[in-house]
Each structure stands twice: as structure tokens, then as C-alpha cells.
Amino acid sequence: MRQRLEDMLSSLETSAIAVSGGVDSMTLGVIAHRLLGRDRVTMMHAVSPAVPGEATERVRHFAECEGWDLRILDAGEFADENYLSNPVNRCFFCKGNLYGAITRICDRQVLSGANTDDLGEYRPGLEAARNHQVRHPYLETGIDKQGVRALARELGLGDLSELPASPCLSSRVETAIAIDPEMLKAIHAIERLVGDELTPQTVRCRVRRTGVIIELDPQSLARIAPDRRPYLSDAIVALLPAALAARPIGFEAYRNGSAFVGAK
To answer: Cα(84)–Cα(93) distance, rounded to whole angstroms?
Structure first.
């Protein structure tokens, strides 16, 4: 598996890897850089209100430890009304802005960390990748998420190999509810609050028309005692912007992609 991936990466003269801070792109970055060096591989990381600060800190840490050529950029999606209106294919506009920004500042082959598990989900960002001739080394070499984590362990990347999936903060907002930086800031703060209180395996703060829903893995959800829910609800409301503060707070089991409405 690793040899197939390294053969594919070696076939490229130069590359620019879009690193989000997640296990997929970070592992790809480590493999490519250790194999080919900074003269042939550049890392690109976009910062915006939709990117948790911890992800950027992780990217910067790895860049320092591994000696990456790292470029931090603003992809510009928060200036794109198509993105801010939050259509069901919001990710198409997000990735389109990202890949467009990368190709404007370098002429290297752009690579993503998409793996074969992504093909079984609604991923409009892959269409944007096709429009910008982005290549996906894991897809081309048949590597799934489990395989990526195995590679991370083989490379000695420690906790990164078990890092839970954490899509951008905008993915928490139900389709057609406009994306707002203050809302995303609150979402992130709430997820950190709930994480500190419950140490869940998975937590998502979903903003829906019907209310603000905290989704948790089933084990963590079952641990919330009935008399503790009002306390958590009050703490969550205190972090919400005024436009959301009157919405009811609920707790539900985590469902992947549950913010999407109308996705096929």
C-alpha cells in the first residue's frame, strides 16, 4: 500500500498538498515530504472562520517538526455569496475557492487527501477538484480511511493516527441557513465546552431551523443525566450569538452529514 502511494508521488515532478489539519492530508504531507523533500513538495493551508484554530496549530506544529515548506493562505470563500448562502453543494464553492487560490500562487500539481471512503458520501468538493485538475493520491492507489490511519501509525505520527474526523465548522449549519463567522465561532466554543464537560468520542453542534442540536456518540449521550441537561443547555445558550439564543437546545445521537438537507 505504501509503496503504491510512494510510486505515485514520485511520478510527479512537483506538488502542492492542500493540508487541512486532519489525518488524511497530514499523513499525505508527511509521506510526500519525507520521500521527496521540500524542493518538490509544498504544503498549502487555508485559514478562515470555518477552520478551527487547533487545526491550524497542528499544521504549523508539523511544519516545524518536519521541515515543511508551508504557505498559509486565505482561500476567499467568505467573500463568495454562493458559499455564504449555504446551498446543499456548499463544499463545491469552498473547494473551488481553495483550489483556485492555490493554483493562482503556484504552478505545481495540486493534491488532496481524499480517500476511497469519501466516494461513498455526498462530496461536491470532488467536482470542484476535477474542475481544477486536482489529483487524489489515496484514490488513485485505493487507500481508505483505515489504510490512512495505518500509514500514520507506520510513520510514527502518534495521536494523529487516531484523530477523529472533524469537517469544517460550516458543515454544522443546516442547508440554506446562511454561514456567518460569529455563528461558527459559537459552534466551535460550544463543541469545546461539551468536549470538556463530557469528553465524548464525537461531538457536533448543529444549527438547524428547529433549534441548536448537540450530537454525541451514543455512549456519551447516554451518560448525560436528566438533571444535568438544563445546566449544559444554559451554558450553551450563553455562548450563542443573539440571533440564535432563543432557539431550543437539544441532544441527539451523532449522524454523519445530518446538516445536509436535499443531498442525494
So the answer is: 9
**Residue 28 is inside which H or E element, if any?**
helix 23-36
Q: Which three cell numbers stand for residue 245?
A: 439564543
pLDDT in 10s for each residue of the chain, 264 residues: 999 999 999 999 999 999 999 999 999 999 999 999 999 999 999 999 999 999 999 999 999 999 999 999 999 999 999 999 999 999 999 999 999 999 999 999 999 999 999 998 889 999 999 999 999 999 999 999 999 999 999 999 999 999 988 889 999 999 999 999 999 999 999 999 999 999 999 999 999 999 999 999 999 999 999 999 999 999 999 999 998 999 999 999 998 875 565 554
User: Rounded to an integer, what distance in angstroms lies between the CA atom of residue 17 and that of residue 153?
Assistant: 20
**Which residues are registered as beta bridge partners of 211?**
208
Calpha distance 11→36 (Å, rounded): 10
Spatial CB neighbours of 166, under 8 Å, sequence gap ≥ 6: 22, 52, 55
236 within 8 A of 213, measured Cβ to Cβ: no
243 residue type, one letter: A
Judge contact between 179 and 170, C-beta under 8 A.
yes
Distance of CA 20 to the CA centre of its chain: 6
Please give the DSSP secondary-structure letter assigned to residue 111.
Answer: E
Instruction: Tell me the whole-structure pTM to 2 decimals.
Output: 0.92
Residue 166, C-alpha cell as written in the block: 472533524
Residues 6+ apart with CB under 8 A from 236: 190, 193, 194, 205, 212, 214, 249
In angstroms, what is the C-alpha Rg of the chain? 19
CA dihedral 8, 55, 166, 32 (to 10 degrees): 10
